[in-house]
Task: inverse folding
């Protein structure tokens, strides 16, 4: 009986820990995306970088900073330099550079946009 209670307590502690980590990650991403520069300053238009990074953060709220920078730069380099252009023109093959799980989320969003027209 004690082992069972200890197990339940450990699960509850882990659930609490995971919920706190999710909150902390979400706050970090929101803070990062609102910083304007977002360390994708290699392009000449910070507003473009910020809007693409903000869009990515909305679609993938748990995206880490390295992936955010990589994905933003890659999309902009490939010509997806505005949210409206991303949502109108992006195809599945345009995001082949993303990690598999991230790509699945974006592919689902693309399908939803196409079906909603």
Result:
């Amino acid at each position: 009986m004690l082992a069972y209670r200890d197990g339940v307590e450990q699960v509850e502690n882990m659930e609490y820990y995971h919920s706190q980590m999710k909150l902390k990650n979400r706050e970090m991403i929101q803070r990062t995306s609102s910083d304007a520069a977002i360390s994708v300053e290699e392009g000449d238009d910070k507003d473009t970088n910020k809007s693409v990074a903000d869009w990515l953060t909305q679609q993938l709220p748990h995206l880490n900073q390295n992936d955010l920078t990589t994905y933003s730069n890659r999309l902009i380099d490939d010509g997806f330099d505005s949210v409206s252009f991303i949502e109108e023109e992006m195809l599945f093959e345009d995001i082949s550079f993303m990690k598999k799980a991230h790509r699945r989320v974006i592919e689902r969003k693309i399908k939803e946009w196409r079906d909603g027209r």
Remarks:
- Confidence is low (pLDDT under 50) at residues 36-43.
- The chain has one domain: 2-115.
- The radius of gyration is 18 Å.
